[in-house]
Write a structure and sequence with these properties.
- With 349 residues, this protein is α/β, with parallel strands linked by helices.
- The chain has three domains: 180 residues, 3-Layer(aba) Sandwich (Rossmann fold); 72 residues, no CATH class; 65 residues, Winged helix-like DNA-binding domain superfamily/Winged helix DNA-binding domain (Arc Repressor Mutant, subunit A, Orthogonal Bundle), CATH 1.10.10.
- Helix 3 packs across helix 5, helix 9 crosses helix 10 and helix 11 runs antiparallel to helix 12.
- The protein binds adenosine-5'-diphosphate (ADP) and magnesium ion (MG).
- Magnesium ion binds next to helix 2.
C-alpha cells in the first residue's frame, strides 16, 4: 500500500480530518435565505490547511443545486475570467443568449444579432448576474492566496458595486496574514481587508489520535503521544504520519523514536519553519526568540526583557497570534504554538 500521507501542499490528503464546525459556519451562512454575509477570508499560517479547506468548500457548493462556482487565480484578469467562465457554461449560455447579452466586445462569446454589445466589464457582470438572480442562481467566486496586485484591486472595487446592487455573488478567499495585512493600506482594498475572517482552528487532537491508531495499529498511549506531537497543525499531521509510515511502519530497518523526531524536525524546518523564521520582522522575531529560549513566558517578563510597554507588546502579540505562531489562551502568558518550533528555532537564535 502507498503512504496515505502527503508532504505536498494544497492537495486534499487521503488521511483527511474534517473541519465540520468552520465549514458549516460558511455553508449555513451562504445558503440561508437572507445571508448577512457574502464573503469570508480564510486565514492561518502556511500549512494550516487553507487551500484544502477552500477546495472542500468549493466542492460542496459545486454539488449544490443552483450554485455556480468559479475558481480564479489572483494572477489573471479576475473580472474577465469570471465573465468568460459564466458565459461559456453549459446550461447557462442559452439563458444569456436569450437575454441578448452580447459580450463579444470584451472578447467573450460571439456577437449576437439584434443586440448591443457590452464593452464595460462591470456592466457585463451586472447583466449576467441579473439573469442568474431571476433564475434563483447563486454564484460563488473562489480565490486562493489573495495578494495586492492590479487584478485584485480591480476585482475588489467591482465586487463592491455588485454587492451594492444586491446581486447574488458570494466570495471565498484565503490569505496569509502578511498578505492580508498588506491590503489595508490600499484604499480600494480596505474592503477586502475588513472582510470577515475565519482563522483556521487546529485539527482535533482526538481525531488525529484515532486516525493514527487505526492506520498504524497503535495502542491508545502511542497514538495519543504522536497526536500531541502535531499540536493539531495540519502540515505536521501529514508530515509525522508520512515519516512514521516510511521510517517505522513500512520500513525493514525501523528507526527508533528519537530518530523519527529528528526526521520530523528537519521536515518541518525545511518545508515551513525556515521560511516563517526568516520572514519574521525584527520586533516579532525578538519576541519569538525569547519564547524559543525560555519556553512559555509571562507577558510581564517579555515586556521587561524587551524594555517594551505592555500596550506596544499587545499589538505584536495580536499579530503573532493571527499569524498562528503563538498561543495566548492562558491569561498573562505567551507560548509558541507550532509543534517543535522552539526545538528547531533554537538553532537559529
Ligand atoms: N483537514 C485536513 N486534514 C488533514 N490534513 C490536512 C487537512 N488540511 C490540510 N491538510 C494537509 O496539510 C498540508 C497543508 O495544507 P494546505 O491546505 O496546503 O495549507 P495552506 O494552504 O494553509 O498553506 C497539506 O499537506 C494538506 O494535505
Ligand atoms: Mg495554500
Amino acid at each position: 500500500m502507498n503512504n496515505p500521507y502527503t508532504l505536498s501542499f494544497g492537495i486534499e490528503p487521503n488521511e483527511y480530518i474534517s473541519r465540520t464546525v468552520q465549514m458549516n459556519q460558511i455553508t449555513d451562512m451562504f445558503t440561508s435565505d437572507v445571508p448577512s454575509n457574502y464573503l469570508y477570508l480564510l486565514s492561518g499560517v502556511r500549512g494550516a490547511g487553507k487551500t484544502v479547506m477552500l477546495s472542500n468548500l468549493s466542492d460542496t457548493f459545486v454539488n449544490m443545486k443552483n450554485w455556480v462556482v468559479i475558481n480564479v487565480s489572483p494572477d489573471v484578469d479576475i473580472l474577465n475570467s469570471i465573465a468568460a467562465n459564466l458565459y461559456s457554461r453549459r446550461g447557462l449560455q442559452n439563458l444569456f443568449i436569450d437575454a441578448k447579452i452580447d459580450l463579444s466586445g470584451l472578447g467573450i462569446g460571439v456577437s449576437l444579432t439584434n443586440s448591443t454589445p457590452i464593452f464595460d466589464i462591470t456592466v457585463a457582470l451586472e447583466s449576467l448576474l441579473k439573469e442568474l438572480k431571476k433564475k434563483k442562481y447563486r454564484v460563488l467566486i473562489v480565490i486562493d492566496e489573495i495578494i495586492n496586485n492590479k487584478y485584485v484591486r480591480a476585482f475588489a472595487s467591482v465586487y463592491q458595486i455588485l454587492l451594492r446592487s444586491k446581486l447574488p455573488v458570494f466570495l471565498l478567499m484565503t490569505g496569509l496574514y502578511e498578505n492580508i495585512n498588506n491590503l489595508q493600506n490600499e484604499k480600494s482594498l480596505t474592503f477586502l481587508y475588513r472582510a470577515p475572517k475565519i482563522y483556521l482552528e487546529p485539527l482535533s487532537i482526538a481525531s488525529i489520535a484515532i486516525r493514527y491508531k487505526a492506520v498504524f495499529k497503535l495502542n491508545d498511549e502511542e497514538a495519543k503521544k504522536l497526536a500531541h506531537l502535531t499540536n493539531g497543525y495540519a502540515f505536521a499531521y501529514q508530515a509525522l504520519g508520512y515519516l512514521y509510515w516510511d521510517k517505522i511502519f513500512e520500513s525493514n530497518d525501523k528507526c527508533d523514536f528519537d530518530e523519527l523526531i529528528s526526521y520530523y524536525d528537519s521536515t518541518l524546518s525545511e518545508y515551513v519553519y525556515e521560511k516563517i523564521w526568516f520572514e519574521l520582522p525584527e520586533t516579532e522575531k525578538s519576541i519569538i526568540t525569547l519564547l524559543v529560549l525560555n519556553g512559555r513566558m509571562k507577558v510581564k517578563d517579555i515586556c521587561n526583557s524587551l524594555d517594551m510597554p505592555n500596550n506596544k507588546l499587545s499589538v505584536y502579540r495580536d499579530r503573532l497570534k493571527r499569524k498562528g505562531l503563538i498561543d495566548t489562551s492562558e491569561y498573562g502568558y505567551l507560548s509558541l504554538n507550532l509543534p517543535r518550533f522552539g526545538e528547531i528555532a533554537k538553532f537559529w537564535v
